[in-house]
Structures are given as C-alpha cells and as structure tokens.
Amino acid sequence: MALLVIGNGFAQDLATQGALAVWVPPEGGHEGRYQRRLKGAGYRTLPMTARGMGDLEAFLTRFHGVRPPHLGKALAQPAAVGDVYYFPPLLDNALAALPPQAQGLVLWLIEGKVLSQQELRYLSLLPTLNPRCKVVVEVASDREFRWQSLQTFLG
Description:
The chain is an alpha/beta fold. It is built from seven helices and seven strands, in the order ααβαβαββαβαββα. It has a domain at 16-53 and 89-154: 3-Layer(aba) Sandwich (Rossmann fold). Strand 5 (104-110), helix 6 and strand 6 (133-141) form a beta-alpha-beta unit.
C-alpha cells in the first residue's frame, strides 16, 4: 500500500509551490515514479534537457529564431552564416494542446545544474506568469530523490 502513497506529497508540493528543485540519484529511474504520480494527479509532463536552450524566455514563451549548425558549404545561400528558422513558443503550443480536464503542464528539466541563477529565478517565476504551467528542475544528484521549492533553493 505504501507504493500508492509515494509521490503524492510531491504532486501536492508542486501544486502549491509551482516550481520545485529536485535531487535525483545518478543511476536514474526514480523520477519516473514521480512523473507517474503527476500524471495521476492530472498533469501532463514535458521532459526536456536544460543544455542548449539559450534564452529561456524566448525559447519557452516567444517566437524565436534558430540557426542550424553549418555542416558544409551550401550553394546559392544568401548569408554566409545560414538561414534562420523560426519556431513557435514551446510552452504556448504545449498548453494549447492540453485536454480540457488536465490540471496543467509540468516542464521537467533534466541537467538543470548548467542553468545560471538568473535562469533559475526566471523558471521560479514562470508559474506566476502562467498558472497552468509548473516547473521541476533537476539541480543535482543525491542518494535518494528529494525536493524543495525552487525559491527556497535559490535563497
């Protein structure tokens, strides 16, 4: 019966805090249990890596340009650095695709240790800017899965 209770406190803390910093064991696998609890609570998760995101605000909430890597000489190209491709905001599209009965969207960022303090502060404010969006950032590894508010983690 204890297996059914594991993770319920995590879902409740996420609902009240909005953004959580988590420590996960390096061998992995534990976060899947908590993602299943979030699914059972009515949330949809969007797992992503924090590496290479660039400007978080532009990547998540605005149309932004991306230049693919230059892999060789292209003929008849207008610019030497390559074309810019524009992508829609990630969170807005994911939130629009949610079913009406869903509680919201959880942005689950792995490798969050590469994020700066300013980027973590923005992620902690994101649930106040968009109440249907919650944030979980894996900030470090530990022997057991634990979490705390992202605001408390930032100090």
